[in-house]
Amino acid sequence: MGNPKGALDLSADRDFLSVLPISDGLVTIRAMSDADAEAYAAGTNDALVKHFAHLPLEEYTPQIVRDMIQGAIADGLRDGTLAVLTISDAGSDSFLGSLVFFDVKPDDAEIGYWVGPEHRGRRVSGHALTLAKDMARKLRLKNLRARTVQENPASERVLLRAGFKQVGEARPEIVPSGKTEMSVNYLAEL
Q1: N-acetyltransferase domain location, by residue (predicted)?
Q2: CB 53 within 8 A of CB 97
Q3: For the chain, which ranges sit under pLDDT 50?
């Protein structure tokens, strides 16, 4: 039976698992697993991740991360509304950071990312953003949105190098952590 009155079936278009894993030979984006819990929790304790990633919780333990993987993360992947993914090393599969698709709409989604401190300086974020754009195209999204705070020029450079364009000027916005920050918005047309 088809969609009644042409209703849009988002679940078919937002099957994140159908486009995973995706790799460029250096970095892989894949679904999170329980094996990532300790590295994810450790990464969230980094001062820069705490300051710039705007994570919803103040503290993450490996058990909290495992519970999220089995709960909210699995639910979001299943219904196509949220994809909290692992950025891993393509050769060793070791955890490098996190890439998130959220605020998923019919034509676009917002992405966020962070990389653990021991993996910075290797252009991991740039590789991950390029792979995220490839995923978004396969999912038939037309745009990817991203934002960073004014005082994060490193993220701004990464976004611009990955083909995102700044949209407007910095303005106060509520970020995923619930705080209000001076945010700069970016858009990548796919």
Answers
A1: 27-187
A2: no
A3: 1-12
